[in-house]
Design a protein that fits this description.
The complex is a heterodimer.
Chain A lengths: L17 H15 L4 H17 L13 H27 L10 E6 L5 H13 L3 E6 L5 E6 L5 H19 L3
Chain B lengths: L2 H27 L3 H4 L1 H25 L7 H26 L13 H4 L4
Helix pairs in contact in B: 1-3, 3-4
The chains are: A mainly alpha, B mainly alpha.
Chain lengths: 174, 116
């Protein structure tokens, strides 16, 4: 079941990706670092023109069914975990005896086969505590992740599944 | 400039520098390729992110008007760092860079290419 097609914001032939239009306009305003009417207009024009010309690259639109949860996930869970991840990893890096680390590969069974959700999950895993995603199996059933210091394999897999995969699945409703 | 702002800017700069340096030390000290990937993906993102925040605060209170385009650096870094780490890890898996057998992926290499 693909998490696409229906978005809360309707798009049409002239505005195929409303969300991308918004993001591109914001990025333009951030790039020029000013908010004037001219740049607002230019940003909006770019935001309309770029999705229109590149429409064939993304025939489908991501379906975000819970935007509030998305914000909570990225601004609270994600930001906290990035900071915690850094402190954890730095502490491991500066251990006096580096051979005490238990690096190993974890195999995470995936509950979703949606490519975008897997991509976001893999990126989030790479940026959060002690893990870097290494490979997705061809059938999109398992994600191979490298853990820097894994004490309990089952617990680590469970944490990743409940903390990151479950909210992502709920946000993109698949 | 207000003393408090200067304090905030220096705090973020020091934090950023610390994490960037710790990440580099980690890359140097860790024994194998896959562990070394953890440095650049995490510590450097927060390191550069902190410095970008420091820059945003500094120029917002120093120059003309608020300065926010540093946010873009952080954003792009957060998007690109996991992707490049993923590519490196994937390439390393295909090359069979794992030194000790214990660190082999459970059964991943069957799907990931030639037997090692």
């Amino acid at each position: 079941m693909p998490a696409y097609r229906k978005s809360p914001i309707p798009g049409n032939r002239w505005l195929p990706h409303p969300l991308m239009t918004l993001v591109l306009a914001i990025i333009w305003l951030l790039l020029v670092n000013t908010i004037t009417f001219g740049h607002l207009l230019l940003g909006t024009l770019l935001g309309i023109a770029i999705p229109w010309f590149t429409n064939r690259f993304w025939p489908e639109r991501p379906k975000i069914s819970k935007p509030f949860l998305l914000f909570r996930f990225f601004f609270i869970t994600f930001v906290t975990d990035v900071i915690v991840a850094n402190i954890t990893v730095v502490r491991l890096f500066l251990l006096p005896d580096i051979s005490r680390l238990r690096p190993r590969f974890l195999e995470i069974p995936l509950d979703t086969q949606d490519p975008m959700v897997i991509t976001i999950l893999a990126s989030v895993i790479s940026l959060t505590p002690g893990t870097v995603s290494a490979e997705v199996s061809d059938d999109r059933q398992t994600l191979i992740v490298h853990g820097l210091d894994v004490a309990d394999e089952a617990l680590a897999i469970q944490t990743i599944k409940t903390r990151y995969e479950a909210p992502l699945k709920e946000i993109f409703s698949c | 400039m207000i003393f408090f702002i200067e304090l905030l800017v220096s705090f973020f700069l020091v934090v950023g520098a610390f994490f960037a340096m710790a990440g580099s030390i980690g890359s140097y000290r860790l024994p194998d390729f896959f562990s070394r990937l953890h440095g650049p993906t995490k510590s450097t993102t927060l390191g550069v992110g902190s410095m970008a925040i420091a820059s945003a605060i500094y120029f917002s209170f120093h120059g003309e008007g608020i300065s926010f385009h540093e946010v873009l650096i952080t954003l792009f870094l957060f998007i690109t760092a996991p992707v490049s780490a993923h590519f490196l890890a994937k390439a390393a898996l295909h090359q069979g860079l794992h030194k000790n057998k214990a660190a082999l992926p459970p059964k991943g290499e069957k799907e990931t290419g030639p037997q090692i």
